[in-house]
Design a protein that fits this description.
The structure holds two protein chains of two kinds.
Chain A: E1 5-14, E2 17-27, E3 32-36, H1 43-50, E4 58-63, E5 66-67, H2 74-81, E6 82-85, H3 97-107, H4 113-126, H5 142-154, E7 160-164, H6 172-187, E8 191-195, H7 199-205, E9 208-213, E10 216-221, H8 223-228, H9 233-244
Parallel strand pairs in A: 3-8, 3-9, 6-7, 7-8
Antiparallel strand pairs in A: 1-2, 1-4, 4-5, 9-10
Chain B: H1 2-19, H2 32-58, H3 63-70, H4 73-113, H5 120-135, H6 138-152, H7 161-187, H8 190-198, H9 203-233, H10 245-256, H11 260-295
Helix pairs in contact in B: 4-5, 4-7, 4-9, 4-10, 4-11, 5-7, 6-7, 7-9, 8-9, 9-11, 10-11
The chains are: A alpha/beta, B mainly alpha.
Chain lengths: 248, 296
């Protein structure tokens, strides 16, 4: 079986700083893999390498067997395969919700406005945002903005969804709504790579969890084994700190 | 003791609940008196200060001569039609030059903002352009273009000094405005580029749909400053013989040796620039409020 995402020996420097050191990771179709680790461990960079927001220096990343630095791939093709949602939503502030989510279908995929908006309203309705099509991002709560951002990423029907700490900027009472959406996507069989600090969510939702430390995947296992019986000292220390902070 | 306070506390809560929240404090709306006082103080002090200056000037021994030279009502009336006609030329040139500057500068800024590698030579050219046209005095450019190019008698090109002088102003001002646009583009958060790129938008589409609309909104206050400055700087074209307000006033001065016509021209410029400056203030204030709201 071809993995959806095949990361092989990927190394990335920012200047002289080594941020990813020969990282290898596979995500199979319909699988949910959570990346955990301290800030600066390279998890977000790894995620961004997958859809080429960051270009890796060595190694290969394949999506559905096609290398992401294949020039024939094109941005459109790459983006059709991998959608990303950011911690800070990054909605376009000068566009209303409907325009935000229909921008790519219309401008990149050449859909007609009516068709794109019909589908846009469907996707919004699914996330309970159908009443906000004409609202501007600044009029929405963080949780609502993040739901719109997820809708925007799904509008182009990606095979893979990359989630970069999508609940980290939310007020605690809004986190649940957004995580419920992610569970729903998992149930539908969406392949996902998730960078998260929500250990409870990772434990419950992930098929596999990878612990990154200093740009290296130290440990990768099922959530039960990784959280229940971590093998590496660094993993144990990290989880101890999380437990001490009351987040697991 | 504790029993007592507890009892009092217990009684106090339902009482308050029954009465509902306290009424809004008085004078919450617009209060004319407090709003007027600063304005009144301001007006009185302006009248006092300028009145005193005016009194000193008009009581000076040379005042009758000054009045005759600069504030001669008859001369003003005589010069007015010509100066007004010239001023109309100023305003037309202002609007046309302004439109050209805004568009040409946008082209420059966009070329400079595109990051694709094969754009590097164009980026470099724009940088050199901006360095040159920002570094040379506008007056010099107006003289060079307005006198120089028509003198060449190039076939197929307009030979009007007004045209080439206006071109010089567009080239020079666009260099400044391009830099203003660039600051607006740079101020758009990097996450916006990442979002657009991740959606598959090309670099041009990212600029066109995601970055520029935000950048242009950011730079409106700074652009208004340029608009006001340009409104009076179009008078520079008078040096190459364009019969604008300043030129017409000078022509009158040359025949009568009376400078009142220049005062008329100055008054006309003030009539145009002061409202524009207030508009600029208003737009800046509105922009500031919008940012503060977003920051909340």
């Amino acid at each position: 079986m071809t993995p959806k995402i095949d990361i092989n020996n990927v190394t990335k420097y920012f200047g002289d700083k080594l941020v990813l050191d020969r990282v290898s990771l596979r995500v199979n179709p319909h699988e949910v893999v959570c990346l955990i680790g301290a800030s600066g461990s390279g998890k977000s960079t790894l995620l961004r390498c997958v859809n080429r927001l960051v270009e890796h220096d060595y190694g290969t990343i394949r999506l559905d067997g096609v290398s992401v630095d294949d020039p024939g791939f094109g941005k459109t093709g790459l983006q059709q395969r991998a959608g990303i949602v950011f911690q800070s939503y990054n909605l376009f502030p000068h566009m209303n919700v409907l325009d935000n989510i229909t921008l790519a279908p219309r401008r990149v995929h050449g859909q007609l406005r009516a068709a794109a908006e019909d589908r846009g309203r469907d996707v919004l309705a699914r996330f309970g945002m159908d009443g906000f099509a004409a609202a501007y991002p600044e009029q929405l709560s963080g949780g609502q903005q993040q739901r719109v951002a997820i809708a925007r990423a799904l509008m182009t029907r990606p095979d893979v969804l990359l989630l970069d700490e999508i609940t980290a900027a939310l007020d605690p009472e809004l986190v649940g709504d957004v995580l419920a959406i992610i569970r729903g996507l998992k149930d539908e069989g969406m392949t996902m790579m998730i960078v998260t600090h929500e250990m409870g969510f990772a434990r419950e939702c992930a098929d596999r969890v990878a612990f990154l430390d200093g740009g290296v995947i130290l440990e990768e296992d099922t959530p039960d084994r990784l959280f229940g019986n971590p093998q590496e000292d660094r993993t144990q220390a990290f989880l101890q700190r999380i437990i001490a902070a009351g987040r697991l | 003791m504790t029993q007592l306070t507890k009892a009092a506390h217990r009684r106090a809560v339902p009482d308050q609940a029954r009465r509902g929240p306290p009424p809004p404090p008085p004078n919450r709306g617009f209060d004319w008196r407090t709003a007027m006082i600063p304005t009144l103080i301001g007006m009185v002090s302006v009248v006092v200060v300028f009145g005193t200056i005016a009194w000193f000037v008009t009581s000076a021994e040379t005042w009758p001569r000054i009045k005759l030279q600069f504030f001669n009502i008859d001369a003003m009336i005589a010069a007015f039609p010509r100066v007004l006609q010239g001023f109309w030329v100023n305003m037309q040139v202002w609007l046309i030059v302004l439109a050209c500057i805004v568009i040409w500068a946008l082209v420059l800024a966009v070329v400079r903002a595109l990051r694709a590698p094969w754009f590097a030579p164009f980026r470099l050219m724009v940088m050199i352009y901006i360095d040159i046209f920002r570094g040379v005095p506008v007056l010099l450019l107006v003289l060079l273009f307005g006198f120089g190019i028509p003198a060449l008698n190039l076939p197929g090109l307009p030979s009007s000094g007004l045209f080439w002088g206006a071109v010089a102003m567009v080239l020079s001002y666009a260099a400044y405005v391009a830099e203003i646009y660039r600051s607006g583009i740079d101020a758009v958060h990097e996450g916006q580029r990442a979002a657009a790129k991740s959606l598959g938008l090309s670099e041009w589409q990212t600029l066109r749909y995601a970055i520029l609309p935000q950048a242009l909104r950011n730079v409106v206050p700074a652009l208004m400053n340029i608009v006001v400055a340009l409104q009076k700087d179009v008078a520079l074209l008078s040096v190459i013989g364009v019969r604008d307000a300043v030129r017409e006033a000078q022509i009158y001065t040359a025949t009568t040796f009376n400078y009142s016509s220049l005062i008329v021209a100055a008054g006309l410029f003030l009539l145009a620039t002061v409202p524009m400056a207030r508009l600029a203030d208003y737009l800046t204030r509105r922009d500031r409020q919008r940012r503060l709201q977003i920051a909340d």
